[in-house]
Amino acid sequence: MNITSLFLFTQQETLPDDPALTPPPGVVPNFDDPPNKNYLGIFTNVICLILTITLVAARLYFKYFCVKKVHVEDYLVVLGLVAFLASVGCNIHIIRTSGLFVHQWNIRLKDFSTVLYVLYIGNNICAVTITLVKAAILLDWIHIFVPLHARNLFFWTCVVVLILNTIFHVTWVTVQFMACIPHQKIWDRLITTGACVHASGLYIPAAAVNLTSNVVILLLPQKEIWCLRIATRDKAAASILFIFTSTLSCASAGMRLHHTRIFYHAMDQLYSVASMYLWTLAETTCLFLVLCVPTAPKVFKKGEKKTRSLLSPRNRHNLGGGNTCQTWAIEMNNIVRRTSASSLRNEGTADIMRSTFETDRGTVTVPKEKCSKKPWR
Predict the structure, then answer these.
(1) Angstrom distances, CA of residue 336 to CA of 91, 94, 373
(2) Does residue 315 surpass a pLDDT of 80?
(3) Whole-structure pTM over 0.85, yes or no?
């Protein structure tokens, strides 16, 4: 959302109680109880929060407590989740104050400083969230598909996309921060002195670049998946899973681009900015799905079935009894070894393939299996 181009006025002298935009002929501003569509915002925020928190929690539980092996991307996803929650908090604040899908002429000019400030903060937080999650996705794929110490085409493609995406969003946030002099003029429409850069022309290209990077993320792992030395059925399942989640992110980014164009050409930009934000929220949620969904089935589907068998007296005796969480973790390692060992690099899977757990009856070791250094060749 282009905060610096919102709420432009043809008159230099305005009063704090004036409407933020001149209403259409015959329309009387409704400052006390303006019509809104807050229910759309509440529904979207609740659904996105449930999906994101559930899947991120499942991934973190699996990586921290079962596999007990974390990488840089696992810390990035935590930071991305914090930023995501902050952006949702900004949207909830807007719902509680001005409301979503409220016409610009139904808001007093003096009330705009708070609204614009929250929009400004939320806009930058969304950019930070997308940067962190896309970086986590690309780093995760490097750990999954690239053998140890290899520097192949897939590796360098991921690195280049990661660097370009990071530079783009850092530049974007910087431009937003330096858009007006004085800085408060970005959100305070009552300041008549100073100047602002008309950055609205960058929003459509920015949304287009973001859509392009999502398409690259969709296509990037497909060749690597189909070159793995695993059963064709497993290749198809993995490919469909990646395509499904990535397609959702591309569709959300496409809708975000569409509503960015509407926002750019609209006079009532406060009304149209709500659609653009909600689609940005949906896109961010889909990026979390791309990162976390491949891990979730191991926890929710196979983990449930195997956990039931582990509760039997026979299996508890064989695995040392006592600690159900530890025995569940051992069995989850067996699941990972059977389903995805061929798609992980040699050293990266060492801690998954060969794990030692202390139980009440001694030490249980899951032996390491052989794994090709270059499984896709």
Answers:
(1) 39, 44, 17
(2) no
(3) no
